[in-house]
Structure formats: structure tokens, C-alpha cells
Amino acid sequence: RSQCQAVPRQPPTRSTSRSMRPAFQQNFAKILCIVLPASLLLTWAAPSSLATLSPADGAVWLAPDEPELRYVVRQYSAPAAALCADPEAADLLRDSLQVPAWRGRPAAECCRWRGVSCGWDGAVTKLALSGSRANGSLPTGLPSLLASLRVLDLNGLSALSGTLPPLGRCARLTHAYLFGTALSGTLPRSLPGSLQELECSRCRLSGTLPDTLPRALQYLFLESNRLSGTLPASLSRLRSLTELELSDNRLEGSVPAALGSLGLRHLDLTGNERLTGSLATAPPKSGCSGGSDRYLRGRMDAQLTSSLRPPKSDG
């Protein structure tokens, strides 16, 4: 036999393995201290934050057996505008309103047109064309074209003609701004029950005030038109009404005494030569703006007047 023998490799002694354990245990404990709280925090926060999303946020509804993640966002960046739900209606709207910025734009992309906002389903919810230089007319079929419309803003479009369509069919409409347009005709007898603000001052409207104004109405501006007839007694039922502007029309008859109990912040009925009567005599501190009794601001009680011409005496 050879005198030289291979020396077998000795396993680490117990002292060596024991010295390695504390470092590993410390690192593992640090990892646990970081990962475990973070995972618990994400588990708690994810359902509460994602549950607030809706399809309008560009989300997809998952199966009902996944309650922890009710919605999953399609993408982190802002979602692209939805495709137009009714391209044929968009074509008709473009041809009628004649908005210069809409010329040549595909009808299927109406949600990307200037002044147009759509919901997640591609239905138009807002039409804001003030300053767009639209010079066409308002289509009579507007309600059927824009059944989901909530805001209609055509303020200042002096070249826009046509008549007011039957807005009552726009069941979700809350605000309609048509100041300074060339719209004519009468006010629709039926207005949506959700309507809160109607601004049709300085148009060419005629006829009488409807006695079926929606009770949700808060602001009604119809100054400088050709409205005639009497003030309907139904105005006193509009408990949400805060501002009423009917100056420079052709209204006649007497002012309903119940108007004084509405708590109006603003009331102007001047410029109606045949309208007579008053609510009462204004107190010394009536809150009139700028020393003028034309605009009555602040909370009105039953004592504030409307600066109307007093009734003519028989003599």
C-alpha cells in the first residue's frame, strides 16, 4: 500500500453550523417583518378601493363569486373614449348643428368630438358647445338622439336657430343653457322631472309659461323673450326654486301672492308693462343689491316686493 492516503473532507463542525444560523434567522425575520404587513395591508385596501369603481371608470365586471376583486381596471392610463353608441344619430346631429370642428370627423368617434362627453356605453351625456361657432339649427329629434343627455350647453351661439325640442324625453337632463341663441317657438309643455336649471334668456321664445314646470327646478332664467299670459299659480309649488328671472317679456295679470313664500334669493319681473301687483312692502333692510330694487338678493321673506308697476286706478 502507498503511504499516502487521501484525507477525507471533514463536515463542518457543530460550532461552525451554529455560527451560520443566527445570520440566516435574522435575515429571514427581516423579510417576514416587511412582507407580512405589506401583504396584510394590500389585502385590506384592495377590496375597498376597487369596489368603488364602476363601468364608467373603464372597468370589467368579474364573476359574482369573486367578491374580493369586484372590478379590475383595464389599464392604468386613462381609458380611450368609448365608441359612439349611435353613429347615425351622430351624423344627423353634425349635419344639423354645423359645428366647424366636427367637419370630416367619423361619426363612430363622436365621443371624441369637441364638446361631446359620453358614458362608458358610448351614449352622449354632455353637449357643451358654447364658443364652438355652431351656425345650424337644433334638430327636433334631439331627445331621441340624446336620450342619456344630462347637460346641454349652447350658450352664446347667436347663429343657432330652430325651435326648442320636446326636452321632456331627455329623462336625465339636469341643466340646459341656451342663452343668446336664435331659438324660437314656445317652451315645451313637458320638461324632464330631473331638470334643475333652465337658461333661455335673450332668445326668441313666445307663448305662455307652462303650468307643469318640474319641481326639481332651482334656476329659471327667461328674460328678454316674448312670453305672454299670466304667471301660473303652480310657481308656488316649486319649493326648490331659488332664482326666477322673467324680466322684459309681455306677461300680464297679477303676481301670485304665494311667490313671497318661496324664499327666493333673486326675483326680477320688471319690464312686463301689463304685470301688476306686488308681494308686499319691502322692509327697510331688504337686501337689495346696489341700492336698486331691480334685483332682490339674499333670502326673501314674504315682505319683499318685486318693484312692479302698481295697479292702475279706475279714475
Brief description of this entry?
With 315 residues, this protein is of the alpha/beta class. The chain has 3 helices and 15 strands.
Which strand-content bin applies to the residues?
15-25%
- Tell me the quaternary state: single chain
Based on CA atoms alone, the radius of gyration comes out at: 34 Å
Helix content range: 10-25%
Question: Count of DSSP helices?
Answer: 3
Main pleated sheet: 8 strands, mixed
Order of helices and strands: HEEHEEHEEEEEEEEEEE
Which whole number gives the mean pLDDT?
Answer: 75
State the end-to-end distance.
154 Å
Output the structural class. Answer: alpha/beta
Strand order of the largest sheet: 3-4-5-6-8-10-12-14
Morphology: flat
Runs in which pLDDT lies below 50 for 5 or more consecutive residues are 12-19, 46-80, 280-315
Search tags:
315 residues; five-stranded parallel β-sheet; flat; 16% strand; eight-stranded mixed β-sheet; disordered C terminus
